[in-house]
Amino acid sequence: IEAFLAGYRGGADTDALVRDVLGMRPGAFDRAFADHLEARFGAYLTPESRRLLGEGPDPDGLRALLAENPRDGMAQLALGRVLVSEGRMDEGEPHLVQALQIMPEYGGHDGPHRALAGLARDRGETDVAIGLYETYLTLNATDEDAAVAASNLLAVEGRDGPSGDVLSGNVWIYTKDPSLHRRLAELSEAAGDWDRDVQA
């Protein structure tokens, strides 16, 4: 990356840098990178699940798709979310767990971390919920609702310092949300973190 940046600064174009820095022809690099993406992330969304999800969640269609390809992460996620939204937690949760195992670094708002964290929170499994929210926030630091949920759970556990730590990053993302600053000040005061309290 540094070599590419230095090359751009010197006026080189991308094709020349791919040849000079990577020692590959640009077309060969593109094919190798596409192969890598397919091998690494192809299970996230198969062509059939793209079609099905584009038409809206159809539990029967998703079940049929998963019978043929149980490693389709987005189909697992979609079916789990549909079943949970219908109040069928016991049926939906295993699909969310499968989705998480297939695509652990998926950081979308609709992802399995957040959905499973909500289920754990509702069952009173606070440590499990906190762990899921914290992992999710490393993938998607801009999700204010998840940060507030994690912070609140930590505060309930009496962990005011870590609770403030979770919020402090979101304060820099949502700088004009006074409720975040106010809550961070409360948590910092409770933890005796006077510097952060004053800043908030």
Mean pLDDT figure: 87
Main sheet attributes: strand count, strand direction, barrel closure: none
Give helix and strand order, one letter per element, not per position. HHHHHHHHHHHHH
The N- to C-terminal Cα distance equals: 37 Å
Description:
The structure is a single chain. The chain has 200 residues and is mainly α. 75% of the residues lie in helices and 0% in strands. The chain contains 13 helices and no strands. Helix 6 packs antiparallel against helix 7 (89-102), helix 8 (112-122) runs antiparallel to helix 9 and helix 9 packs antiparallel against helix 10 (144-156). It starts with a helix and ends with a helix. The model has no long low-confidence stretch (mean pLDDT 87).
Summed up:
This protein has helices at 2-9, 14-22, 26-41, 47-54, 59-68, 73-85, 89-102, 112-122, 126-139, 144-156, 160-173, 178-191, 194-199. The protein has 200 residues and is an all-alpha fold.
Helix and strand arrangement:
Layout: H1 2-9, H2 14-22, H3 26-41, H4 47-54, H5 59-68, H6 73-85, H7 89-102, H8 112-122, H9 126-139, H10 144-156, H11 160-173, H12 178-191, H13 194-199
